[in-house]
Amino acid sequence: MDLVTVKGLSKRYGGIVALSEATFSARAGEVHALLGENGAGKSTFIQILSGAVQHDGGSILVDGQDYRPAHPDAAQALGIAAVFQELSLIPDLSVEQNIWFRHEPRTWLGTVNRTEMRRKTLTLLNKYNFPALRPDQELRRLTLAERQIVEIAKGLAKDPRILILDEATSALPAREAEWLLKLTRQLAGEGRLVIFISHRMAEVRAIADRLTIFRNGSTVAAHEANAVSDDKIVTQMIGRHLDRLYPERIATATDRIALKVKNFSSGSRLSGVDFALREGEVLGVGGLQGHGQRELFQALFGATRASGTIELWGKPASIGNPRQALTGKDGIALVPEDRRGQGLLLTKSVRENLTLSVIKRFTENGLLSRQKEAALVKEMVDFLRIKAGTPEQLAGTLSGGNQQKVIFGKMLLTEARVLLLYDPTRGVDVGTKGEIFQLMRDLAAKGYAILFHSSDMPELVHVADRVLVMRNGRIAATLEGDHISEEEILRAAMLETRAA
Amino acid sequence: MSAEHPTEMAQRPAETKPTKPAIDWRGRLLDRAPFLVACLMLALIVGIYGSLQSGVFTLDEINLDTAAAMTLMLAATGQTIVLLRGGIDLSIGGMISLGTVIAATRFTDDPSTTALWTLVILVLGFLIGALNGLLISLLKLQPFLVTLATWSVLNGVAMIILPTDGGSIPGWWVGFASAQFIGLTSPVWMLLALIVFWWWFRATRIGITIQASGSNEKSAFLSGVSITRVNVVTYGLSGLFAAGAALFLVTQTGAGSPTIGKDYILPSVAAAVIGGVSLFGGRGHLAGTLIGAFVLTLIGNLVFVLHVSSYWQPVASGVILLLSVLASSVAEKAARNRVQ
Amino acid sequence: MSAFLVRNRLIVLAYAGMVVLLLVTALFSPGFLSVSNMRSTVVLAAFVGIVALGQTFVIIGGGIDLSVPWVLNSAAIVMALLCSGQDLPLVWVMPLLLAAGAFIGLINGIGVAQFGVPPIIMTLATNVILQGLILVLTGGSPTPSAPALIQFLSVGRIGGFPVIALIWLALTLVATLLLSKAAFGRHLYALGTSATVAEFSGVPTARTTILTYVISGLTAAFAGMLLTGYSGQAYLGMGDAYLFTSIAAVAIGGASILGGSGHYLGTVAGAMVLTILTGLLPALNLSSGALLIVYGAVILLTVSIGSETFAGLGGKLRRKEG
To answer: Tell me: the pLDDT tens digits for B106-117?
Structure first.
């Protein structure tokens, strides 16, 4: 008997269809994986299941009963808990306060019973073999990985029949990810249903009993895990052949050095890197997450303090803040990873966003020229094929891919020829991903120098001309030509340092 | 094995405990830096005051000073709850004025009438505060503007009831402030009651939820908190304490005033900030606020004893406020640099 | 044209509200729409408008200036003291005090931008410190009357138009240019929307923030001197009412208190609305207490409208990706 049955589920946001005619069924005691690209509808689906969002049409049956929670509390009361990627933790509370938030054991005075709470915390952490966590530690002191683990504990504290894990391993290091995978099997063994979203085939293979594949807002297939091949899964996820995603790699690098970096350090994570980026080159930066990649990009752009030397096009450059980075043709531009927090003004128009960094370019005698501005906007909208009704449309209403294009456009207008792209295809639909990769190659052919980081290794392998592998804040290896492969990157990233 | 796994945790050997020290003393110290700075300031002020004036370290002095500070303390208690929530309540100015005005025109020597009107004032305070909370939540408006508007409305109502300072407060009500029990006057007992209240309140679910909502409203919402309910309770309590402040204030002034409330709005925020309550929400303790209130009140005594013009008092308050904020800002930056 | 109206609908609404209010007042108070009455209304509104000019810039940038009462008052008092009723000293006194106002703004701005002091606290502190310093300076005793020249600027007319209205008009033009037609305006709107994004886009965030407070200090000081001319005297506490009214004018004019949106043209309507209300109530035989109640209600009403129109947008923006 199925624990959960979903039929014809649909949800729209204004004019955008997030889900249509989704179907799903899963049993108790099962680990069920949800697969699909970003934007395929998985997140909306689990938001509906967890009560965070209400569906428009279709039906959900839990235990044969109609299920339509008005609020996550209602869902939790019925035994359904979710652990989202967007953490719901409170920075100023302690680990155990977070785990039991709103469900704290109480004394007769109405106050929290601290001893009981500690006992329950330790029982929970021990029962499921949690990695080391100190219950009394303030959450804001924890790393992202530790917070993810607390979020998982928080979900388990509710003793759910159905636990939803949304890309819970993405923030976890190898050992803890293993632990989590074992945990899902333990939970399934206890008779619970675990719904598990992941991009990682290896993980899905390790734990899933069944899987459901989402594409373009709908469910396209459901399989027993051991009855379907990886290729079939990928094809059903993407809907087209993988190869066409990446553009042909043409050698466009010249001998001219665009960016030379020596002994570059920043904070505790970037410990001294040396490298040179050539004109016309797409230089990839890889390695395991958290080894200084983000710090490198932010520091090169001047967003954080750094020491060491930078030379742009042969001339020494001193970049203390982004304003000093964006100096025109000899400048350096960054497309940051955090679209909403660092890249775009969501409540402002596409036009205002595009032209924000280059106001000088359409100023005449101290006053702004609407016509010149419109010309610049048109140039970028056409070049990048930004899909917006009019340039006055608010940036917040665009899709992720188009938002990314606006940020690209903003940086391209500065005419800086050294581009730093940090995870430019994250949260971007497959179609736009392809466009972005082609754009990178086109720009390189025009003489741009691109430093490019992706958390997705295949992207690095297929797009970059060379790859710098970072480990512990330094460059562990530089891979070229045939040496660029996932295995080589991994090996350099994880083993002891080889000659760079 | 996939390459995307970060290694922040993998660097720790699996079989031993985390390499961080058992108790992060430096971290804890830095966290409490603003509070400690406030304690230091208070000690300094009391020290200077005590060296220049005799009879400072006596029970009498404590009684007097607590009475002088109590109105601000009550107002600041409500404000502390609001600040913890990450908001601000400007309407307490209006509520305090309104409270004094109702008391001055309705209190009589008859205890039951006075008791009734006391109840009315307190309930009114809570309800208006709750209304603030509702407006903020349901209309999705900023606390600054909503409470600015309600302040104006309350102020106006106070002026209509009693256009100029006046009215009368029964003598026995005024006498409440000097009534003693075991050598300590009622304000001192009220102070102790406030501390007990806070200790209890912060350990309740609603207290934790209010703090959580101020710490990260989004996370609280995702955790299923009803933000509307939290706002109603938060601002309702603030209004309640403002009403309490008014009721105490009239024991000091013996009259009602439609304009007196505005003198307590910004000082209530200042007292909290001096005491280490964060303007961004999620952090702070009443102990700090109470110390801040003492600091602000005692500056007046100090100025008097130093024989300088009383006009230096606002200057000193402003400077102390700035120093305190700079101290917290430095401490916060240091704390942030240690994490991640 | 209609697109323009839609985009600036809050400002349009503010002006519509103003017109409605004028007509309503005219109904209850037949002489209200007379030339002389409209003239004095505009003059009174000008003072609010000038103080609110600086406040507008600060609020759009995401801050708030609580120091206007005593910057205003300080400039008024020091001017009266230095001029002792003579016109000639104004030549150097006026620029000096404007510079002093700008300097206070600079201090506020540096505190906020460089030291990270929350605007409420920084400007509150400077307000209170200035208050103390001026009180110490004057010892609470009255100051000499205002020079005749300043009185002329505040009360006098050129060709039938009040001089101060012309000043206000000129300032409105300057503010509009700065906000709509200058790089500073774009930087300011970006900064007020998201300081982080502005920083990452190369906007000079610290400089922009500091400038807004400098402007606010300037306008508050200027208003203080003009107000002294208007009432003939500088007195203690003359700036207090302008804190509430400057913020209210900005809010009624459609600006978001969080920053990133709004325009001085809206503030102008806001200043007019507040001033007309002050004239309406005596006509309705209501007391000053009632005026305060109406002020509060008007603010609530106007910000609710502004918020509702954004509520739908907020819903769209809150949609998560994927």
So the answer is: 999 998 999 999
The reply to whether residue A43 touches residue C320, judged by beta carbons under 8 angstroms, is yes
Below-70 pLDDT ranges, chain C: 1-3, 6-7, 307-322
Q: Is residue C157 part of a domain?
A: yes
Average pLDDT, chain B: 86
- Asked if the model's pLDDT at residue A217 lies above 90, the reply is no
Alpha-carbon Rg of chain B, whole angstroms? 22
Inter-chain residue contact C66 with B266, CB threshold 8 Å: yes
Strand partners, A219: A214
In this predicted structure, the answer to whether residue A301 has a pLDDT above a threshold of 90 is yes
CA–CA separation, A330 vs A313, rounded Å?
Answer: 7
Domain-terminating residue out of A190, A222, A239: A239
Please compute, for residue B7, the number of CA atoms within 13 A of its CA located in the half-sphere on the CB side: 18
- Kindly determine whether residue A345 and residue C319, on different chains, have CB atoms separated by under 8 Å: no
- A164-196 burial string, b = 16+ CB within 10 Å, else e? bbbbbbbbbbbebbbbbbebbeebbeeebbbbb
pLDDT confidence tier of residue A307, bands split at 50, 70 and 90: very high
DSSP 8-class letter at A226 = G
The predicted model scores a pTM of 0.87
Answer yes or no: do C193 and A43 touch at CB < 8 A.
no
> What are the chain C neighbours of B314 within 8 Å (beta carbons)?
128-129, 131-132, 135
HSE (side-chain half, CA atoms, 13 Å) at C297: 9
A77 touches B178 (CB < 8 A): no
H helices present in A243-304, as ranges? 293-300
* Smallest CA–CA distance from C195 into chain A, residue: A342
Instruction: Mark yes or no for CB contact C287/B160 under 8 Å.
Output: yes
Percent of chain A with pLDDT over 90: 58
Q: Does A5 lie at the interface with C, CB-CB under 8 angstroms?
A: no
Asked if A34 and A111 sit in the same domain, the reply is yes
> What six digits make up the tokens of C34?
């007379």
Nearest to B71 by CA among B108, B29, B37, B100: B100
Residue range of the domain that includes A121: 2-239
H/E element, A58: strand A57-62
**Residue in A71, A89, A111 nearest the CB of B200:** A111
Can you give the pLDDT at residue B337?
Answer: 58
CATH number of B58-328: 1.10.3470
Residue A500 lies in a domain: no
A259 and A208 in a common domain: no
First to last CA, chain C: 37
C318 part of contact set with chain A, CB < 8 Å: no
User: Chain A residues with CB inside 8 Å of B17's CB?
Assistant: 132
- Residues A66, A123 share a domain: yes
Give pLDDT, residue A38: 66
Write the CB contacts of A474 (distance below 8 Å, at least 6 apart in sequence).
A271, A272, A273, A292, A497, A500
Are A74 and A8 contained in the same domain?
A: yes
pLDDT beyond 60 at B76: yes
Q: What range defines the domain where residue C60 resides?
A: 45-239+257-262
Bridge-based pairing of strands A2-13 and A16-27 is antiparallel
Retrieve residue A186's tokens: 């333990």
pLDDT tens across B149-177, in order? 999 999 999 999 999 998 988 988 888 88
Task: Specify the CATH number for the domain of residue A53.
Answer: 3.40.50.300
Last residue of one domain, picked from the residues A239, A262, A283? A239
Q: Could you tell me the two tokens for B155?
A: 């102020």
Put simply, the answer to whether A203 touches B2 (Cβ < 8 Å) is yes
Partner residue facing C292 (CB), from B144, B159, B266: B159
pLDDT winner (highest mean) among A459-463, B201-205, B223-227, C84-88:
B201-205
**Is C33 near chain B, with CB under 8 Å?**
no
